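Quick one: co-fold with zinc ion.
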Amino acid sequence: MNLSNAAFDLAALRTDQERDAGITDARAALKQTGSTVCIDCGDPISNERRLAAPFACRCIDCQTLHEAEKNSR
Ligand SMILES: [Zn+2]
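Sure, here it is.
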């Protein structure tokens, strides 16, 4: 039995839950106004993208990834 692996899995699970909770909060706050920073990676969203999509809450990279994940389900 490898205890360090179990500890790592638990930590990873907790991080996922905290991240999901943070994203849910961010989504609720950003329902109408969008964001200046990506809710997934924290990078700034370019002014160009915000003008094109004022409600955007992800950078182009994360939005593309998000849509690809959504479509693969
Ligand atoms: Zn991003």
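If it helps, The CA atoms of residues 5 and 11 lie 10 Å apart.
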